[in-house]
Amino acid sequence: MYLSTKDQDKLLLTTTGFLAQRRLARGVRLNLSEATALIACVLQELIRDGQSSVAQLMQVGKEILGFRHVQPSVPGCFPDGTFLVTVHSPICSPSGRDPHLSLALYGSCITPAPDLFFDHVQPSLEHDLPGAIVVQSPTDSPTSQHISLNVGRARIRIKVTNTGDRPIQVGSHYHFSLTNPALRFDRKIALGHRLDIAAGTSVRFEPGDQRMVTMVEIAGSGQVSGGNGLEGHILQKDDSLAVEALIDSLVAKGFEHEPAIHVESPLKEFEMSREAYANMFGPTTGDKVRLADTSLWVEVEYDHTCYGEELKFGGGKVVREGMADLGIKDGRISGIGKAGNPDIQAGVSDQMVVGVNTEVIAGEGMIVTAGGIDAHVHFICPQLCPEALSNGITTLIGGGTGPVAGTNATTCTPSRTLIRNMLLSTDDVPMNILLTGKGNDSKPEGLVDQVYSGVGGLKLHEDWGSTPGAIDSCLSVCEQYDIQCNIHTDTLNESGFVEDTIKAFKDRVIHTYHTEGAGGGHAPDIIVVCGKDNVLPSSTNPTRPFTNNTLDEHLDMLIVCHHLDKSIPEDIAFAESRIRGETVAAEDVLHDLGALSIISSDSQAMGRIGEVISRTWRTASKMKVFKGFLTEDEKLRGIDNDRVKRYIAKYTINPAIVHGISQEVGDISVGKLADLCIWKPENFGVRPEQIIKGGFVVWSQMGDANASIPTVSAHLRKTHVGLPSE
Length: 726
Description:
CATH superfamily of the largest domain: Metal-dependent hydrolases
Radius of gyration: 30 Å
Protein name: urease
EC number: 3.5.1.5
Strand content: 15-25%
Number of domains: 3
CATH class of the largest domain: Alpha Beta
Binding site for substrate: 461
Number of strands: 30
Structural class: alpha/beta
CATH architecture of the largest domain: Alpha-Beta Barrel
Active site: 562 (proton donor)
CATH topology of the largest domain: TIM Barrel
Distance between the termini: 30 Å
Strand order of the largest sheet: 19-20-21-22-23-24-25-26
Number of helices: 19
Largest sheet: 8 strands, parallel
GO molecular function: nickel cation binding; urease activity
């Protein structure tokens, strides 16, 4: 059996589709991935039969499933070759074509139970869907129903005729005077003007068309470049002599030019409804966005754009030669604000000019966040890195040397040789890696040796003995070399109680891991360290948030991770002393208050590296449901901006500050590394669309590589060109 990569992608799609068919056959409503796979799988089987055309299958694709078959969030080769089958609005009827599911189960050889019945369901209201956008209403602001574009700019209205024999379509930001020679109008009057329409839209002139067109004066410095006739020169629109020379030159070259007898000067500004604006460019100031399917809503606080000057990439859009321009240089964030061409656009920010050396990543309607930081990583296997990266983590902090007992239990990379080997082994990983050495030594010499070998922190762990002497020695070295000390305290209370460990800190700053205690630490009261000013407390994600099933998984998890023996009663007592429902429940509340600062993974050692971000937002959503809004003002406005900022800090800027790397990563600021995550609102916190590391796309949702467009199913998260190669 010889399978190409595209064959493998289609097999995965088929496997998922068959799984979805089995679930549907037993009465389970499908989620987005299942519904997509089922529709694509059925279409593949119909394509293989060779009896249907592309157009027929486009219609069939809309009739396979209905609203009642899917959850509220769900929106091959022909005989003569490979073709694209697109299905618009695939879930658009209550039951699909066949209420008995014969089409949905086509090719599966599955017969649904005769008494299977899906209740009739109405399509969800738009504001109930994951990632919903609700624009500002008239009750929020009396001027909110429409957005005026190009405010305060002079306008003209002139006659334009297409004298050619083919249609001409002109984009919003094309210098109108320099358009197709077959357009007849007053090119002198139009110089320095563009169409007064929404950015990225266009006006089409059919052959022989004659119409009145409104134009708006270009903004910025007023320099005209690109288009026809300038041959690389730049023209200042107010330079009358140069303007006359240009028009004469255009006429001599055969450009149609007809001086206008009458030029209108309309005063009314072009307007768009807020709904249309949000659909085209994404939400703007005052609009609200639901974060995935959580209870959290954020309001856009400020929009850097100038309405009418938005950047849109594509055919006839704004980002083209001579017109528009963007904020990452040399792997770092160079500007935040309004990108564009300062020659013709208003409000363009410093360091945000796009030119021939600029690439475009379209972000309209998306949410961009800083790359996540996982501050508690056991480097057990290299597969942790792509798993973390594909879920939005771009910085890993921790230790280990691979799948050995010490690393399974502790985040320590000891000795010069092992530190060197770990640093070398991560060179080709497109992530920031900070290694922590072993801090359990009551004498400083070995600790200092690790610092000089390249670790960025030291880790105290009870499995190596977190005694007061080791704590004091480790903190002293960390203070001397300005690196962070992390601690997993003494669950056994062998050397003393939590009070004795706090005394050993001597008011020096320390980062306490899994501070609730299920992951380890003084039983049963390690959580009291949250009240100490010098303690920077964090959580690991298996206890995030506290749910019905949280405690049940922890006992066996702990026994495996810490090399315990079920046949030894003391080992079982040790494990059970760490699993306490009361403190896990309290952990939720302390996070919501801000008393706990960080959420990390504890990867493969009682934690899941791919769920740092998703479990953070599950915790935030749970606390919104239990406690309501954080402030009265946000309650009145129906938003959760303060809570969202509090929780996103737990895996971005807070761990960056704690580990002394906030000058490089942790938020989206000028000068910091361009480590970014791009999310669709409906998938926020769960499934990023793209991961950017140092300005390069290193991970992305991507369709079939053999397809004619990049969005053909199956969509898989794949590594991309930004990844280094041998």
